[in-house]
Design brief:
This protein is an alpha/beta fold. 50% of the residues lie in helices and 12% in strands.
Length: 187
């Protein structure tokens, strides 16, 4: 089944989603403009880019990504936002943030993150899912939320006998962004 992100006659890239039954047609130009990762993938130095250059179309599978979250990101990139929800729960915001970080497409989604985060202002850092909110704040560049969640992380983080960061006995070293973990472990 083809999901509508962009009118298929205007797209030159077909992305098969993790479900393998669904695919989306998108524009290589908009993908490349929004994401340095997609830009590199669509250059003629990669198989997808070679096929695009040779035939004018290409296709590939993104089976590691959550299909619903990926479609949200692709719709924003393609300015097809009429049916993107104004509200997402923390789990979906987190999954979208993972995809946004993976493909480095923060800029087009900043306003959407502001909208999705708004209902949780003042309570996100206090919730049991504050580590997810920490990641969301980092990716979305939400300074206020980042300050709130970082404060809680600092107050609750300890080092175990191996020098690994833990919260309530659970290691968090592999659950936080590498760029942040490097700074934390350097302190």
């Amino acid at each position: 089944m083809t999901l509508t992100v962009l009118d298929a006659s205007k797209g030159d890239v077909t992305i098969r989603l993790a479900t393998a039954r669904e695919q989306v047609t998108v524009s290589s130009k908009l993908l490349s403009f929004a994401s340095p990762v997609f830009e590199a993938m669509l250059r003629p130095t990669f198989a997808e880019g070679i096929q695009l250059e040779k035939t004018g179309t290409t296709e590939f599978t993104l089976d590691d990504d959550h299909p619903e979250a990926l479609v949200i990101v692709l719709k924003v990139i393609h300015h097809c936002t009429d049916d993107i929800p104004d509200y997402l729960d923390v789990g979906m915001i987190y999954i979208v943030a993972l995809i946004v970080d993976k493909y480095d497409v923060v800029r087009p989604l900043v306003s959407w993150f502001k909208l999705w985060i708004q209902p949780f202002r003042g309570i996100a850092a206090k919730s049991p899912r504050y580590k997810e909110w920490f990641w969301i704040s980092w990716v979305s560049r939400d300074a206020a939320l980042f300050a709130e969640t970082t404060r809680r992380l600092v107050l609750e983080t300890k080092l175990d006998d191996d020098g690994e960061m833990v919260i309530k006995g659970k290691r968090i070293t592999n659950t936080l962004p590498d760029r942040i973990m490097g700074r934390c472990t350097d302190l």
